[in-house]
Specification:
Layout (H helix, E strand, L loop, with lengths): L24 H18 L9 H38 L4 H22 L17
């Protein structure tokens, strides 16, 4: 705001500011109304009854629940397979450890695929995320 439209006394400290009272209430009210008018011209126009904030929030919760449940399910399946292999082959705890790690990796891959950050195998695409 180098055009000289600053309120009197802004940016000043020390002796030059002391002894001066702030802007009057009328001046503050006028400036508040001007700011409100400027902001109103810059805001996007919303249609009546349209509330994107509520819809976006609910969609975000649904997406988060979906991604977290896919991740947890992959880990649980890995643990289950590892436990069964350990019981069957008597290799405790190595089957459980190996399949826990495989389930963790599969869970991360599932989350990335569901979020659209990794292309599906065999569907083409570079695997570098969404194409522009």
């Amino acid at each position: 705001m180098a055009d000289g439209k600053r309120p009197a006394g802004t940016g000043k400290t020390g002796p030059e500011r002391r002894g001066k009272t702030g802007p009057s209430d009328d001046d503050l009210e006028r400036r508040r109304r001007e700011l409100g008018a400027q902001l109103a011209t810059r805001r996007p126009v919303r249609l009546e009854g349209e509330d994107k904030g509520q819809t976006r929030g609910a969609g975000g919760y649904a997406q988060a629940f979906k991604l977290s449940s896919e991740f947890i399910a992959a880990i649980a399946v890995g643990i289950g397979i590892g436990w069964v292999i350990d019981r069957w082959a008597g290799t405790s705890p190595w089957g459980l450890i190996v399949f826990l790690l495989l389930g963790f990796g599969a869970g991360i891959l599932n989350v990335l695929r569901a979020a659209g950050l990794v292309a599906e195998f065999g569907r083409g695409g570079s695997g570098r995320g969404p194409q522009n």
